[in-house]
Amino acid sequence: MGLIREIFGPSREEIWFQLSREIGAEYEESGFFKAGKVVMSHRQWEITLDTYTVHTGKSTIIYTRMRAPYMNRDGFRFNIYRKNVFSWIGKLVGVKDIEVGDSFFDDEFIIQGEPEHLVRSLLNNGMIRQLIQNQPNIHFQVKGDEGWFMSSFPEGVDELYFEVVGVVKDKERLKSLFDLFSLVLDELCRLGSAYETEP
Fold it and tell me: Which residue of 20, 76, 95, 170 could cross-link 27, Cys pair, CB 3.0 to 4.6 Å?
């Protein structure tokens, strides 16, 4: 065990348990067919960090994700991810990239969503932009009703959603993600896009 730890460092379980203690969250241990997760309460919302696995033929891909269901008043959607070598394909098929007026941020990220004025208003918050920029890889969005733990959302409930390939064990990066989710949920309320009630 000592050699494995020396080569690979502390396990995800160790780091996520420490993280949960440091941010005042609950750590739910792994079980049969169930990965461990961190659940943090922020005001009336629950923000959940976990992993899931996709099997594609001979390979297996693990994703780290974070989710927070909330009452979406107006159907607001956004989708934010870093630009890459394939980003131009989206523009060819007519995917509109919203610019928010921050040249560095606009150059680094693909920003989509509707209504556009709400996307700009959300990203007008410099701290939100900074927390997004802190993530080396990011796919951050509002997802519609695709279910919460394999069951349907109640009417009007969507989820704030982040995912990235691999297991994230960087505590500071994960803390920054929890900060991002908390701040965005607060800002959605301020903009009138989220209800200040439990989903």
Answer: 20
